[in-house]
Structures are given as C-alpha cells and as structure tokens.
Amino acid sequence: MLERKSVDIQINKNYKISSDINQWILQELTVNKKKEKVWISKYYYTTLSKLLQDVLDITQKGSGATTIKELFDVTEKTRLELKKLVKPLEASNVLF
User: Fold this and answer.
1) pLDDT digits (tens, 9 = 90+) for 24-56
2) With contact defined as beta carbons under 8 Å apart, do 17 and 26 qualify?
3) Cα separation, 31 vs 40, whole angstroms
4) CA distances from 94 to 1, 14, 52 (A)
5) N or C: which end of the chain has fewer CB within 10 A?
C-alpha cells in the first residue's frame, strides 16, 4: 500500500498549510491554556488556489490597518510571501 504523507508548509509566522487525503487545511498559530504555541486547524479547502486566496483575504481583514497605505503594504507583503511559495507550483500547473 502507498504511504500517504500530509503537507506541512509554513506560510508566515501565523499560518501554515497542512493536508489530509481529502482537503487542504489552513492552520493558525495560537497559544493554548498552558501558554504553549500550537497549530490549530482553522479552515478547510478542496483546492489549494482557494486556500491561497483566502490567506490574502484573512491577512488583509486581520491587519488592523487604519489607512489605505497600511492595507496596501500588508497586501503587498502577503502577496510577496505567497508568490515565493507558489512560483515553483505555477510552472507545473499544480494550482489549476
């Protein structure tokens, strides 16, 4: 039988991508009651491209930006982080 491994790719300090056989999972870093940092599964996706779109959306909405400039800066920073992750995948059409 084929061994199945899950994906474990950290996107930034707050989020990482995980998977199981049926779905992509966006995990968020949080602190539990024992003050330990733990990754919790927060959002579930059927496609990797939708997960990546939502990372940008979630980051923008949770940025606390108070000006358009701040929101633009957060957006550009997140896009660059995602672009570094996605570039090798684009060539192989993994996202589509």
Assistant:
1) 999 999 999 999 999 999 999 999 989 999 999
2) yes
3) 10
4) 24, 24, 13
5) N
